[in-house]
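Revision sheet: structure tokens.
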Amino acid sequence: MRRRTYGIVILMAGVAAIASIARRPKSTPVDGDWPVNLAHRGASARAPENTLEAFRAALEDGAGGLETDAHMTHDGEIVLIHDDTVERTTDGRGFVREMTLEEIQALDAGYGFGDDADFPYRARDLRISTLREVYEEFPGVPINIDIKEAAPGIERAVFEVVRSAGAEGHTLIASYRHGIVERFRCVSGGAIPTAASRREIEIFLVLYALRLTRLLRPVYVALQVPVEHRGVRIVTRSFVEAAHALGVRVDVWTIDDEPGMRWLLDLGVDVIMTNRPAVLAKVLQGPGA
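Predicted:
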């Protein structure tokens, strides 16, 4: 199975290269307006992930933008939760796609997170947030939305929320699922930028290994990757340079330690996703901060 998958990736890379060879892209500037300090599910090291409280804490800690995860409820609302089910982060059980918004928001989204001494939000009623609420609560803040599940119609539902909020200019859509990314690009007509899907990242990596990335014509603005995958280093200085030559950002997840942040910034990465935006804010202030 692994050999077959690798063969498919190589084939796709070859097709992409041949299709692009007649129209080589010009090197374009990397978008410098997107924040370096992107809070992963909010300040999720000190507040329950993907809640308004975690997002609020992140901005208080110096984050320039928010990363979050999107699912669609049974009644078509976009809610911010990482897993397909609610068990890990709430006191409920079940699949998000099988629950209504009312059922979802009746759950305790702070369930099991810390104790009263460590968690200052314990006295509040915490619930799963909707995407609409985040745009209303934090107007103008850059939002990175990772669409997790290929529920029918989720791409259009997300697009409609973003458009109704007038947030096209400070939203990025991501998903490892290539079909979701492709459908969103179609639905949005390219009005909202997207990150590379997993398939597109794999193609980039193959062409990078072959020193043929110049043949690519990316429709994405960012490669969102971990430092390494299965023991293989992904993020290197030359990897970053190859992405930048195409006008593509390198967004790295999820980095919480100061030395790791400094090392990545020295490599020239554009965005660091972190559970601890206060640590990254301090690093960005420079020595002696």
